Amino acid sequence: MSIILDATAANTTPTAGQDKDLIKDSSVETFVQDVIEPSMEVPVVVDFWAPWCGPCKSLTPTIEKVTREAGGRVKLVKVNIDENQELAMQLRIQSVPTVYAFKGGRPVDGFQGAQPESEVRAFYERLAGGPIESPIAAILDQAAGALADDDHETAHGLYVGVLEREPQNETAIGGMIRCMVAMGEIEETRHFVDNMAEADRLKAPIASAISALELAETGYSKEDLDVARAKVAANPEDLQAQFDLGMACFATNKREEAVNAMIAIIRKDRSWNDDAGRTQLIKFFEAWGPMDPASVAGRRALSTVLFS
Q1: Among 285, 243, 291, which Cα is nearest to 264's?
Q2: I want to staple 170 with a disulfide (CB 3.0 to 4.6 A). Which of 85, 146, 199, 203 is the partner?
């Protein structure tokens, strides 16, 4: 699991390395050479911010991200108004964050306050004159496909690549957890999860992956499957055997059979073992994800049993 920790701790300083020509800090002394002159050739976005400004802390990383994805079609300059009060007064900056876009040496567009990434992207696309697509989204789609095909090593490598660029990407973190669970790294994954902030563990993609970890920690395996099937065949009323069958089917990725086993418990005795059948079935849905065919069919079957 060290690779997770390495990936999530990667240096993503926006002004480092290849970003120095796209993203820079400016001041009243260098504003003309940083903003006005370059804007004659390419749009320049200016982010006016302050260290004490809460919304700035969420907006600036988003603007930096979209700037990188623009691939040089738009540049970003950041101005700390506390250190450049004269410049802020000249440009009539009344609150932060304030964002101006310069083209041809003059401001042509702008907005105030924190904005979602979709709005920032639309702002940049107007300046660039065309779509700005996130390569991260394409990588995540590719990783999800590999994970769905049980190609866990490929998915793992793709998620690592995302986390090297975006250490807090919750979809990549959740995918990484799923990969490590599938590859049998249960103890390492548990250690990683236990050291995450509580707020991060509650994010949907991560919470769903943690459900998969918790199910893996129950200890059911392929060896339990034939035993459970034999017990259920011998006595269909044995709800513990039905439960073991459902858990063993989950462990061996027999999703439809796992759902059927838990539904059988709920149909026969909804309250058995403190509602264990329904509780585990919900965990299955969380682990598979809401759009998985087994989750969709399982929720439909659960509703039929509960409300019939």
Answers
A1: 243
A2: 203
